[in-house]
């Protein structure tokens, strides 16, 4: 079928959201994952085809990919899963997209640009909340200020919560610190090295929502540079000022936080929690995304949007991009969402408002 693609990691929290929403975009995922006990019940519920695939079984993976044009990779942590999938995609000539947000994974996948062009396929990580909204704002600001030398991107979640997958990925990074881009290079920085107040516009209702944000190692440290070539980039997320003050002392405990003992305790706590936000929680929550570009003359411009909560947005944006690719709308090689589809891509996602 022309509208079929492989959805690997369909049994995860976000994978299920994507699977359930797919019909809205007139595409049909083949649900895939490692364990039949998790995949088959979802396939039966949605009346969708499924495949059981072990990522480490190269022959099995390539056999499954040979039947489709596109894989939407939704099984993290991607630092452990992306390499197997991208190499299988190159072997079979299948487009690769994922909902990753890990800077190291973006940088790793970028190295496959030449190979992807030879195979006439597109490699586009970060087709979810990481990094579609921020990537679009980055390009919008670059288009308005072509001589920009500095870029700040910030986001804040209003309500909602974390899925097991997101929390597990974060747990794997705890104690590692942060990064920024300086003069075109990715450099290590303490987590939360900088903090500031941002006036996020509040949308219809007037006024602004003033929130505190701190620096974090978000995917745009990699992708926004690819999209805009702005050499200095910082990424921020909303956090209570009291928590920020505590985190300023994290450097003294990073050695402990990096130990397997501490990380295993955190993982056990994550597994004991619900899989992710409930439908009601997601419906009540939203995201604010803000950007500021500046040039050497000291001029600054800003942009801000309000959009769906991160998980619902990811389901929509990943399917929107999947549909475009299946219809033949793609560029070969390594691409970023806004770099390929333009600054207004985020406006195609329901619920997005410029504010």
Description of the molecule:
The chain has 355 residues and is of the alpha/beta class. The protein has 15 helices and 16 strands. The chain has two domains: 4-127 and 312-342, Rossmann fold, CATH 3.40.50.720; 132-309, Dihydrodipicolinate Reductase, domain 2 (2-Layer Sandwich). A seven-stranded parallel sheet has the order 3-2-1-4-5-6-15, sandwiched between helices. Strands 10-11-12-7-13-14-16 form a seven-stranded mixed sheet. A two-stranded antiparallel ribbon has the order 8-9. The longest helix is centred in the C-terminal third of the chain and has 17 residues, at 310-326. The radius of gyration is 20 Å and the shape is globular. 48% of the residues are buried.
Low-confidence runs of at least 5 consecutive residues: 162-175, 202-206
Could you please say which CATH topology of the largest domain applies here?
Answer: Dihydrodipicolinate Reductase, domain 2
Compute the number of helices.
15
Number of domains: 2
Q: Percent helix among the residues?
A: 25-40%
What is the 3D shape? globular
Please report the first level of CATH classification, the CATH class of the largest domain.
Alpha Beta
Mean pLDDT: 88
Total strand segments: 16
**Intertermini distance:** 40 Å
Tell me the fraction of residues in β-strands, as a range. 25-35%
Profile the largest sheet: 7 strands, parallel
Strand order of the largest sheet: 3-2-1-4-5-6-15
Looking at the overall shape, the CATH architecture of the largest domain is: 2-Layer Sandwich
> What's the gyration radius in Å?
20 Å
Class derived from helix and strand content:
alpha/beta
């Amino acid at each position: 079928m022309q509208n079929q693609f492989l959805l690997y990691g369909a049994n995860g929290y976000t994978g299920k959201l994507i699977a359930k929403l797919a019909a809205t975009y007139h595409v049909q995922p083949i649900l895939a994952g490692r364990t039949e006990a998790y995949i088959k019940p979802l396939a039966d519920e949605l009346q969708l085809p499924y495949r059981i695939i072990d990522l480490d079984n190269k022959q099995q993976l390539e056999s499954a990919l040979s039947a489709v044009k596109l894989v939407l990779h939704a099984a993290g942590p991607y630092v452990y899963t992306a390499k197997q999938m991208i190499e299988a995609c190159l072997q079979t000539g299948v487009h690769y997209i994922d909902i990753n947000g890990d800077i190291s994974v973006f940088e790793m996948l970028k190295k496959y640009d030449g190979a992807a062009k030879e195979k006439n396929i597109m490699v586009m990580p970060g087709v979810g909340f990481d990094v579609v909204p921020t990537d679009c704002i980055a390009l919008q600001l670059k288009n308005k200020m072509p001589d920009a030398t500095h870029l700040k991107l910030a986001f804040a979640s209003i309500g909602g919560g974390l899925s097991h997958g997101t929390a597990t990925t974060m747990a794997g990074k705890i104690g590692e610190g942060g990064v920024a881009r300086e003069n075109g290079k990715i450099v290590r920085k303490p987590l939360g090295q900088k903090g500031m107040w941002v006036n996020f516009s509040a949308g219809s209702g007037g006024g602004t929502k003033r929130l505190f944000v701190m620096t974090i190692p978000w995917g745009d440290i990699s992708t926004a540079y690819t999209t805009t070539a702005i050499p200095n980039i910082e990424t921020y997320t909303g956090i209570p000022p009291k928590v920020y003050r505590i985190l300023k002392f994290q450097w003294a405990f990073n050695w402990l936080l990096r130990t397997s003992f501490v990380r295993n305790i955190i993982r056990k706590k994550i597994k004991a929690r619900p899989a992710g936000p409930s439908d009601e929680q997601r419906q009540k929550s939203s995201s604010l995304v803000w950007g500021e570009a500046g040039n050497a003359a000291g001029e600054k411009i800003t942009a801000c949007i309000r959009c769906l909560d991160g998980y619902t947005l990811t389901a929509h944006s990943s399917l929107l991009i999947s549909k475009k690719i299946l219809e033949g709308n793609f560029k070969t090689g390594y691409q970023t969402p806004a770099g390929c589809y333009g600054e207004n891509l985020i406006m195609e996602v329901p619920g997005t408002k410029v504010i």
